[in-house]
Amino acid sequence: MGLLSYIKIWLVITIVNSIFVSSASAEALSLPELLSFAHSNSPYIKRAEGEVGLARAQKLGAENSLQKNPELSISAGGRTLPRGTGLEFEVGLQQEFEIGGKATLRRKLAARHISRSQAELAESQWKVHVEVHRLYVDILLARKRIEQAERFVSYALSVRDIVRKQIDVGEESPLALLVAEADLARARELEVGARQLEDSLRVQLATTMGWESSDLPTISGNLPEVRPAPAVDELIASMSENHPSVRASNEALDASRTKLEFEERALWPDPTLGVSYAREAAAAPEDPAHIWMLSLSVPLPSFNLNEEGRAMAAAELEIANQEQMATHLKLKAELREKVSALNAAVERVAIYEAGVIPQIEKNLSLLQRSWDLGEVDIHQVSQMRERLLEASDQHMDALTAYYETAAELEGLAGQELWIVSEDK
């Protein structure tokens, strides 16, 4: 394939990718669409795919039945004879080969490395999946924070406008306007912070996904229902079966076992088989001599017994074994911790949603009415508004803790536990 053909293919791929990104930028993306894009474009996944390609490239060398090329030797010269000089030459061909199944073990070890790199690729894919899911729900929560802040800004604006009118007619002190302006500034500060949080999360999402467009991705969907965690035993069983880190540690252990077996087999000598032909000149009237030789040479395993290779392979096997155990213990401990944290977050959310949050709009209206009737002054309004704002903010913190913990728990379980609504 010529250079022009490669350039045409590159242009087609670039155009198709730009069309996809442009169309994706034009409308909000659902969670499955975000995950699909991240799976194809995330730099973390692409790097892991490169490691798989490297392992496959190494396997090409292991597929060779003969690891060393044959050696051809040619020598020629003359023999001085009583009546002149006779021509002599020799041609030899030697080939070193492996015995004891070393070639089979080398191919097996290369296959283990591919399996290990594929397991690490799956681990990277799942990490990206979990991170995209976490950022997705965080962005939805940031939007809820914005909506919450907008409600308080609207209420603070109405209070400030009323205070101004009361000051104009002499019904209120100018100090009341200072209180109203401070409340409005507080509400607007929360709104600005919520919008900045959403932008920051979208930047993080774009980085994780490998989103190269200048327009940050917009998302659609609804948060799943808040509910307790599944049983710990079910989650541990799911983790043992599905978590990519478990598989990766198992593959690393299998590769280390094969490496040790190969290093122990490397102690076997590699014999060299050779064949040679020589022509020796003879004095007249004798004819030249034609000599054929078959040779076999074998190194004697006396001094170099591959002690270093075997010792290092044994140490690597022990490390892999300990890392496998540590991975299982660490994941189980983290899973139990996240189950406890999730259930605690469920209780925190329930505390606020049982009576406080559903009544916020009503309470703000009642507060406004009481103030209009002169039952409370501006300072009491400010204090009560601050309490409601604080309760609303704590409710959002509890929701954030719940959904982030839920995403982390899914990551530990190795599979989806909560389905996010795709309604746009």
TrEMBL record:
Q: Write out the entry's keywords from A to Z.
A: Coiled coil
Q: Where is the signal peptide?
A: none
Check the record and name the Pfam families matching this protein.
Answer: OEP (PF02321)
Q: Which residues form a coiled coil?
A: 305-332
Q: Name one GO molecular function term.
A: efflux transmembrane transporter activity
- Keyword flag Coiled coil: yes
The UniProt similarity line reads:
Belongs to the outer membrane factor (OMF) (TC 1.B.17) family.
Official protein name in the record:
TolC family protein
The species is: Microvenator marinus
Source species taxonomy: Bacteria, Deltaproteobacteria, Bradymonadales, Microvenatoraceae, Microvenator
